């Protein structure tokens, strides 16, 4: 998902399409900053808090396993006000996209002297690789904290899982916000009209799966399956970046890694669906 900047020194008219495309990172960051500043003003802090913080929290009392005393545990459910949080972090995703593009990917692509089509693919893989690696590590941390790896039966036992920990809910909010931000990025990238439909399919499929898992209380299953999928996708885009950056051996090293990681990606996708069917079977049989 490339963020292309016009090399012309002529400044476009203010509020024109070209002006918005060139400066969309700064514009969106100013909008996001209004919410942050709003927290500091007593009159606007309730409204700003609605967009920045997570809502629909519930407190339950559980018995401490070590000391045997009751303790209060703060958990979260989903609700209408989650849309406000998704909107704010949707703005943050646009800003982070522009930062990664300008300060990381543009510096590498200038050294590689790629063609326009290859540069777009290089930038797309670079953006997705950063997101996939961060999401995979985050999902792994959640699975360790929730003991999902050591106790796989917890994925389907006591379904539906109506409540979530803070980190798990925040994970889903960020996931939804990130894939929603892919839609305006098509405008910022000046994607051709005939290519829009194919570009829309990828984020839409992710949104259907993530929102479905979030709203249908498959939050534990969803984070496990997303970690598997993101690991395979990260491997694929790593190979893609190696392919574009490997010029010394005419791309032979990149082709080798690309084929190897594509095999890993295929295995990951197959495992994604087979594991999902197995978990859904357990959920169905436990009813």
From TrEMBL:
The chain crosses the membrane at residues 27-52, 86-105, 126-144, 164-180, 200-217. It is found in: Membrane. Keywords: Membrane, Protein transport, Transmembrane, Transmembrane helix, Transport. Residues 120-287 form the TLC domain. It comes from the Eukaryota. Signal peptide: none annotated. GO terms for cellular component: endoplasmic reticulum membrane. SMART domains: TLC. One of its GO terms (biological process) is protein insertion into ER membrane. It is a multi-pass membrane protein. Belongs to the TRAM family. This is TLC domain-containing protein. It comes from Cloeon dipterum.
């Amino acid at each position: 998902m490339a963020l292309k900047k016009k090399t012309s020194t002529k400044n476009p008219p203010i509020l024109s399409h070209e002006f918005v495309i060139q400066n969309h990172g700064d514009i969106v960051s100013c909008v996001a900053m209004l919410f942050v500043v709003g927290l500091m003003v007593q009159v606007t802090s309730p409204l700003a808090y609605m967009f920045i913080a997570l809502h629909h929290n519930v407190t339950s009392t559980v018995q401490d396993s070590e000391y045997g005393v009751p303790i209060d545990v703060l958990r979260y459910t989903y609700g209408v006000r989650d849309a406000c949080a998704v909107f704010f972090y949707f703005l943050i995703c646009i800003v982070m996209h522009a930062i990664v593009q300008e300060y990381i990917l543009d510096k590498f692509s200038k050294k590689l002297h790629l063609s326009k089509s290859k540069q777009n693919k290089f930038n797309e893989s670079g953006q997705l690789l950063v997101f996939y690696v961060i999401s995979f590590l985050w999902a792994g941390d959640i699975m360790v904290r929730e003991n999902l790896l050591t106790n796989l039966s917890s994925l389907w036992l006591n379904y539906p899982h109506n409540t979530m920990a803070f980190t798990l809910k925040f994970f889903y909010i960020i996931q939804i916000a990130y894939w929603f931000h892919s839609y305006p990025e098509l405008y910022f990238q000046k994607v051709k009209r005939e290519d829009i439909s194919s570009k829309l399919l990828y984020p839409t499929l992710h949104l259907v799966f993530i929102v479905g898992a979030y709203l249908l209380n498959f939050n534990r299953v969803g984070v496990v399956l997303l970690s598997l999928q993101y690991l395979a996708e990260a491997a694929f885009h790593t190979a893609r970046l190696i392919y574009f950056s490997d010029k010394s051996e005419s791309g032979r090293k990149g082709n080798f890694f690309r084929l190897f990681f594509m095999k890993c990606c295929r295995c990951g996708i197959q495992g994604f669906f087979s594991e999902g069917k197995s978990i859904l079977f357990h959920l169905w049989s436990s009813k």
